[in-house]
Design a protein that fits this description.
heterotrimer, A alpha/beta (332), B alpha+beta (246), C alpha/beta (299), A: alpha/beta, 2 domains, eight-stranded parallel beta barrel, three-stranded antiparallel sheet, 15 strands, globular, B: 246 residues, Nonspecific Lipid-transfer Protein, Chain A, five-stranded mixed sheet
């Protein structure tokens, strides 16, 4: 990456999505193993070691890096699978591992000092001292910043810490401090932090009632959709709740983060990399979103405007609507 | 959870998938319309044979697919296209996968997917993202969502093209099938044209249009049945040859 | 049983935004009457509330210390602004033991002895050991952990003490957004501190009418009150030495007294449960997390 360009970091939930991302112009792809060691532990998703090796060969053959997310928190007495995942990523020739747990960072630092370490958004490092802590103790080279910061705050962090930063460019708006939200396990008993699945599908159900569709997580009704009303992910933070007798999206509306229009500002803030969320999305999404961001970054590099691309991704957006999230004032 | 045996019992196997072969070969035709007409006309035995053959052929062409399907928890998913008279049942997990044709209102699924045929084919072929469809409510999932998520993720790992898969099934009978497909396609095109012309004339009296439509269908029904029977004969002959050579 | 270390009772930081005078009275009564060994003071949820209690802080600290209680300064759970970082540094230099609730504290404290609060993910023994080597003398575990995990972490903790929350609504998430303000159609910047209207938080009810969550400014808590009762004896045996009561708008002296009696085996868990139920007037007790079930459940 030369100075002033933004690295496009893209999701790969499957080998097919990895190839789609590479072909669509990703600079890096991130992926995880088929188990609890990553935060998208959904059935049928992710890579076994053989698939990872093939994926890395495909990506490297086309000048693309592969980052392996091992970003859940190993439960007490069972840290072995997480350490093994770090070993396997190193053996497969991954360009970096994305970690969140302090104990696992310590393991990776001691066992694979040459393996580049990125700090996952699950570690929720949203200030300069936190970033320094991870940098100084575990040699973290890059921090994936939580989606709770404004562009000015991002800029100040880059300036103060001098570390590589990766920010979310497209995906969900996570209103909660990530990696330490227990809402899903409170409702259904499966811990996102250790099991790698928020609102796991086997605890989600949809029930038709009086012409409406109710989405439920465990026993709790998260939402009720009238016919034709845009739907949100069945996560607790995208549910509708009653306060003062009035129903509202108390935490966050069904809306997607799309930073396409503010790429120049993010570049000016000194951001290193843009993260596209969506390892749980299909390869069609990957092709569409990565391709659009590739076009935008290329346009930007040539000094052209990105405006013509702005409406391209609305159909991929949660709730069919887009926001700048915390990047712009007023969201909080 | 359903067992695979239960799926057998569900088998009021009604035709659907057999309407698809022309789609495969006449990619520039109107594959969705053909799928729909095929669903109405094709005999059950042909549909069943084609469904089974397609699934096995897909599994042979994508050897990781059966492995990944086996790794899922056992489940039965009903896929109910909004615009077809029937639906499909797919059983997978721990045992080899099975595909069958079911009545739209069949019970016994762990999860049910409802969408238009166009959306379902696009989904299968990885041209469209299921979450986007979900947000827009173009895809309705009921029952155990995990089952559908697992199936979606496993299918999305493979570069499937319905056209290729069907062409592969038809194998050396492709020329004969192509001929059938062209005939069917031609009829359907003409049919659709006439229907829409009638619709333009008679609108908003939709009932008259549909009566005319039905009459047209009746006139062609017997000829199509004959053609599909020929297709089945070809298949049976091919099967015997395969067995002999094996 | 004689090998078991004495169990300490602590009073966690007040999570809700009570008027300063009410807060002062609360702590003075705690100083005089509550059988707790340690009291955590400090704003955990929102920096906009932080200065409100400043005029009374020193008095509260003095009175609590005079009553023989250890005072620990709890810090914000989510630090983002330079002003919040500055405040963190001031806390570290205040002279009190600090409870670190954001990893930022670990950098600021630079190895000085401290408590790791429940908002830092200590989920396993590896993380415990790293933090212990960096000055953690006590680790208060996140509320999400099941009993087996708590016991595993406590069993090998050595000189580092382990603390768990034994009573109170359970913190489930922290955020940048203020949901209290949102529920009043206000922005966070112009929130008018409406979180102060609800002394035990604001109930969020599902679309089907179940009371499920409690909103406390930028924080989300359980609706039910998390309690450890039968588990306490087993947790003590595995090495858990500190049990935290999270303050509510209840007779906390009475709650503390019952828990002290429970720890001293002078009262049965069932009797304590019955009394707590009566005090909570219909709001449920929950213990799902420690039992390894959905957190909101009771068994």
């Amino acid at each position: 990456m030369s100075a002033g360009t933004l690295e496009l970091v893209c999701p790969a939930g499957t080998p097919a999505a990895l190839r789609a991302a590479v072909d669509a112009g990703a600079d890096s792809v991130y992926c995880g193993f088929r188990d609890r060691t990553n935060a998208r532990n959904y059935p049928g998703l992710n890579f076994d070691p053989e698939e990872l090796a093939e994926g890395i060969a495909y990506a490297h053959g086309r000048g693309c890096k592969v980052l392996v997310a091992i970003n859940t928190f190993p439960p007490a007495g069972d840290t072995g699978p997480w350490c093994l995942a770090v070993d396997r990523a190193a053996d497969a020739g991954a360009d970096a591992v994305i970690l969140a747990d302090i104990g696992l960072l310590d393991y990776a630092t001691r066992t694979h000092p040459q393996l580049r370490r990125h700090l996952s958004v699950q570690a929720s490092a949203a200030n300069a001292p936190s970033i320094r802590y991870y940098r100084d103790h575990f040699g973290v080279k890059r921090v994936v910043l939580p989606r709770v910061l404004s562009i000015d705050e991002v800029s100040a962090l880059v300036e103060e810490t001098g570390i590589e930063t990766e920010v979310f460019a497209f995906g969900s708006v996570g209103p909660m401090s990530e990696g330490r939200c227990f809402l899903s396990s409170y409702l259904c008993g499966v811990s996102p932090t250790s099991e790698g699945a928020c609102a796991p599908a086997n605890h989600v159900s949809y029930v038709e009632s009086d012409g409406r569709v109710l989405s439920k997580l465990g026993p709790v009704t998260l939402n009720a959709f009238a016919p034709g009303e845009p739907a949100a992910y069945p996560t607790p933070c995208k549910g509708r709740y009653l306060t003062h007798g009035r129903a509202s999206y108390l935490f966050e509306e069904p809306v997607a983060l799309n930073a396409l229009a503010i790429l120049p500002e993010l570049r000016a803030a000194g951001v290193t990399a843009l993260k596209i969320e969506g390892r749980q999305r299909s390869r069609a999404y990957v092709t569409q979103v990565v391709g659009t961001f590739r076009q935008a970054l290329d346009a930007l590099a040539r000094g052209h405007a990105v405006e013509p691309l702005l409406s391209t991704l609305r159909q991929e957006a949660e709730g069919g609507r887009e926001t700048f999230g915390a990047y712009r004032k007023g969201w909080k | 959870m359903q067992t695979h045996q239960d799926l057998e019992d569900l088998g009021h196997a009604l035709p659907v998938l057999a309407g698809a072969p022309p789609t495969a070969i006449e990619a520039d035709g109107t594959p969705l319309a053909l799928l729909q007409f095929g669903a109405i006309w094709l005999p059950r035995s042909v549909a069943h044979a084609v469904a089974v053959a397609v699934l096995r052929s897909v599994e042979r062409a994508h050897p990781r697919l059966p492995r990944n399907l086996l790794a899922l928890d056992p489940a039965v998913v009903h896929v109910i296209p909004n615009d077809l008279p029937y639906g499909f049942a797919l059983a997978f997990g721990r045992e080899p996968a099975r595909l069958g044709v079911i009545a739209r209102e069949a019970h016994g699924a762990d999860a049910t997917i409802r969408a238009s045929t166009r959306v379902l084919v696009d989904l299968l072929e990885g041209r469209i993202d299921s979450d986007s469809l979900f947000f827009r409510r173009d895809l309705i999932v009921s029952g155990n969502t995990a089952v559908v998520v697992g199936l979606r993720n496993v299918l999305d790992r493979e570069p499937l093209l319905l056209a290729d898969e069907l062409a592969r099934v038809l194998g050396r009978f492709a020329p004969a099938s192509r001929a059938i497909a062209r005939r069917l396609n031609g009829w359907v095109e003409a049919l659709l044209e006439r229907v829409s012309a009638a619709h333009r004339v008679l609108h908003p009296r939709e009932q008259d249009a549909s009566a005319m439509f039905r009459a047209e269908i009746d006139r062609h029904r017997s000829e199509i049945a004959a053609l599909t029977a020929r297709l089945a004969q070809f298949e049976a002959r091919q099967k015997r040859r395969d067995e002999k050579s094996a | 049983m004689s090998a078991i270390a004495p169990a300490r009772l602590t009073l966690g930081p007040l999570l809700f935004h009570w008027p300063a005078a009410k807060r002062r009275d609360f702590y003075l009564r705690i100083a005089d009457e509550a059988p707790v060994d340690t009291v955590y003071l400090g704003e955990v949820v929102c920096s906009k509330r932080e200065s409100a209690f400043d005029p009374y802080l020193d008095e509260a600290v003095r009175r609590l210390q005079a009553a023989g209680k250890t005072v620990v300064h709890s810090t914000l759970a989510l630090v983002t602004t330079p002003r919040e970082v500055r405040r963190l540094r001031e806390s570290a230099e205040h002279g009190l033991l600090v409870e670190a609730n954001d990893v930022a504290c670990l950098d600021v404290l630079a190895g000085a002895p401290h408590v790791v609060g429940p908002y830092i993910n200590v989920i396993n023994e590896r993380t415990r050991d790293v933090l212990a080597s960096q000055g953690a003398i006590r680790i208060a575990l996140p509320v999400e952990l099941p009993e087996a995990s708590i016991r595993t972490i406590a069993a090998g903790a050595g000189a580092t003490a382990i603390e768990v929350q034994a009573f109170g609504r359970q913190p489930l998430s922290v955020a940048m957004r203020c949901y209290h303000a949102r529920s009043h159609n206000l922005s966070k910047d112009h929130c008018q501190l409406v979180c102060g209207l609800d002394a035990d938080g604001l109930t969020a009810t599902s679309m089907a009418g179940e009371d499920v969550l409690t909103i406390n400014g930028t924080q989300t808590l359980s609706y039910g009150y998390g309690v450890l009762l039968d588990e306490i004896e087993r947790l003590r045996e595995s090495g858990v030495g500190y049990f935290r009561l999270s303050p509510h708008d209840l007779d906390m002296v009475r709650v503390a007294t019952r828990y002290r009696e429970l720890l001293d085996r002078q009262r049965e868990p069932a009797a304590v449960a019955a009394e707590l139920r009566a005090m909570l007037a219909g709001r449920p007790l929950i213990n799902g997390f420690v039992r390894g079930h959905a957190g909101m459940t009771w068994s």
